[in-house]
Design brief:
Elements: E1 5-10, H1 16-30, E2 33-38, H2 47-60, E3 68-71
Parallel strand pairs: 1-2, 2-3
C-alpha cells in the first residue's frame, strides 16, 4: 500500500512559490510526503530557491519538514534526491 502524498505541479507561473508553500504546509500538517512535479516550462535552477523559501516559512510556522520527492519529466533519467524527514 502506498503512503499518502500531496502532489504539486510547478510550471514557472507567478504563483508557483505560493502553490509550493501551500502544498508543503499541507503535507507537513498531514504528515505525508510531498511530491513536486517540475513541468518543462519550469525555469532551470530556481527550484532549490523555491524549496528553501517554502521550508523556511514552514519552519517559521512551527511545522516539521515533510519528505519531499521531485520528478522532472524533462530529465527522466536523472534521479533527483529525496529530502526531508524520513
Amino acid at each position: 500500500m502506498r503512503s499518502p502524498r500531496v502532489t504539486v505541479l510547478l510550471s514557472g507561473a507567478p504563483n508557483d512559490v505560493g502553490a509550493l508553500l501551500t502544498a508543503l504546509c499541507f503535507a507537513a500538517r498531514e504528515k505525508c510526503e510531498l511530491c513536486v512535479l517540475l513541468a518543462d516550462t519550469f525555469p532551470n535552477g530556481s527550484f532549490s530557491e523555491y524549496l528553501d523559501a517554502a521550508l523556511w516559512e514552514a519552519a517559521r510556522r512551527g511545522l516539521p519538514a515533510p519528505r519531499v520527492s521531485v520528478e522532472c519529466p524533462r530529465h527522466p533519467a536523472a534521479a533527483l534526491p529525496t529530502v526531508g524527514a524520513s
